[in-house]
Design brief:
ten-stranded mixed β-sheet, binds magnesium ion, single chain, 430 residues, binds 6-O-phosphoryl inosine monophosphate, alpha/beta, Adenylosuccinate Synthetase, Chain A, domain 1, four-stranded mixed β-sheet, Adenylosuccinate Synthetase, subunit A, domain 2, Adenylosuccinate Synthetase, Chain A, domain 3, binds guanosine-5'-diphosphate, 31% helix
């Protein structure tokens, strides 16, 4: 048995969903531990595409248990809709294979309204959030007024908390944002109904994981977003509102760090970002278009076009350090097929100085200029390749160089969206 954390090393959308689905074969339980339905995780199995936002990507394998930990913020309406979506695709889902921590904070309708109102007020300086209410829901959690999933099972407690929250948030909506307010009875009735639907899924995820591990079972922790979107270690304030790095897996599910054996860093063979904020290697030329087109770089949650750029080794080195990455899963190698020359950002320069490590200040990062190293590309197709030694020599050299620059080996190489278009060089569960 082994327990493995999977995290994104860049700005999200690295291909976490695909690799989680792949590695779920070796796990018994798959856990989401942070983020919410701002995530969009895509997996393709036998030609069927599944896009999941809240439900762990392990759900596609019916014999596995999936769990949503306390570190997630959960929109109950979206959760129930996603269960319906997955059922329509033929996935058997019930309270026995999908568990939801009673400690999980809920995203309430006023959180979404606040998210939109704040972004609108910021105008050009907006973060470019997914509009799902993620930030305001996390704020309420640390402000100790959040309404948790388990509160729905105690009507009086729920009503009291909702009343307090509405009096506070309605005041802000009305007087600070000049936005519409919410009616207590209407929100209460909607949520009490949702509580009934949610009830079969609610339980103690920390205990479930402890019992599974004591029984010799393996747990896979599925990160959302990416290291550069981490609320502390990312490009603050252009980040999400949760800790996205590996350490968050323990806090967000209720297990101790000594139980973890391996951290997989998902690394896209180039870089993308959705939303605002600094992005040193961003391209606005034909190469950027090639990456966007070949990589189908459109958001799985909001459909927004993703900004694309060259591989940034400063970013991934930062992620390797902050996550303690054991091995990387290099994804979307095939998207580089046909590019004559590949550039890799090895460091930045700013005011004549070389910068090797990620600056703490996003404003400084904004003024950093990438230092590029060039490598020859390849003309052959790598789509679906499952044998490293059969890859074009130039592709092998590219991978070896990335390994050197970021300081960890490629444990997995992905050459297409489908589960089978992958090679496992080192199995994290072994
Ligand atoms: P996540 O948020 O990290 O799970 O990633 P997304 O699902 O948002 O975005 C990754 C996209 O790339 C999805 O459309 C995947 O189907 C696709 N994908 C994953 N791995 C590969 C790969 O190796 N090659 C190609 N061409 N597409 C991939
Ligand atoms: P997955 O798990 C890419 C970005 C948003 C915005 C910032 C804050 O699919 O990799 P939020 O709604 O979280 O307050 O938005 O974070 N963002 C993501 N970008 N992939 C994601 O998830 C993201 N989740 C949030 O675009 O810039
Ligand atoms: Mg995504």
């Amino acid at each position: 048995m082994a327990n493995v954390i999977i995290v994104g090393t860049q700005w999200g959308d690295e291909g976490k969903g695909k690799i989680v689905d792949l590695l779920t074969e070796y796990a018994d339980v798959v856990v989401r531990f942070q983020g919410g339905n701002n995530a969009g995780h895509t997996l393709v199995v036998d030609g069927t595409t599944y896009i999941l936002h809240l439900i762990p990507s392990g759900i596609v394998r019916p014999d596995k248990i999936c769990a949503i930990g306390n570190g997630v913020v959960l929109d109950p309406q979206s959760f129930m809709e996603e269960i319906e979506y997955a059922k329509k695709l033929g996935l058997p889902i019930s309270g026995s294979n999908l568990r939801l921590s009673s400690l999980t904070n809920m995203i309430m309708p006023y959180h979404k309204a606040l998210d939109h109102a704040r972004e609108a007020r910021k105008g050009k300086a907006k973060i470019g959030t997914t509009g799902r209410g993620i930030g305001p829901a996390y704020e309420d959690r640390v402000a100790r007024r959040g309404i948790r999933v388990g509160d729905l099972l105690n009507r009086e407690l729920f009503e009291n908390k909702l009343r307090d929250n509405l009096s506070y948030h309605n005041f802000m909506l009305e007087n600070y944002y000049s936005a519409p307010t919410f009616n207590f009875e209407s929100v209460r009735d909607d949520f009490l109904k949702l509580g009934e639907a949610l009830a079969p899924y609610i339980g103690d995820v920390s205990l479930l994981l402890d019992e599974a591990m004591k029984a010799g079972k393996s747990v896979l922790y599925e990160g959302a977003q990416g290291t550069m979107l981490d609320v502390d270690h990312g490009t603050y304030p252009f980040v999400t509102s949760s800790s996205t790095i590996a350490g968050s897996a323990c806090i967000g599910s209720g297990v101790g760090p000594t139980t973890i054996d391996y951290v997989v860093g998902i690394v896209k063979a180039y870089t993308t970002r959705v939303g605002s904020g600094p992005f040193p290697t961003e391209l606005s030329d034909s190469v950027g278009e090639h990456l966007a087109k070949q990589g189908h770089e459109f958001g799985a949650t909001t459909g927004r076009a993703r900004r694309c750029g060259w591989f940034d080794a400063v970013v991934v080195r930062h992620a390797v350090r902050t996550n303690g990455v054991s091995g990387m899963a290099l994804t979307k190698l095939d998207v580089l097929d046909g590019l004559e020359t590949l550039k890799i950002c090895t460091a930045y320069t700013r005011n004549g100085k070389t910068i090797e490590n990620m600056p703490a200040d996003a404003a400084i990062l904004e003024s950093c200029v990438p230092v590029y190293e060039e490598m020859p590309g390849w003309t052959e197709s790598t789509v679906g390749a499952t044998d490293f030694t059969q890859l074009p020599k130039a592709a092998q050299n590219y991978i070896r160089r990335l390994e050197e620059l970021v300081g960890v080996k490629a444990a997995i190489i992905s050459t297409g969206p489908d589960r089978v278009q992958t090679e496992i060089l080192e199995n994290p569960f072994a």
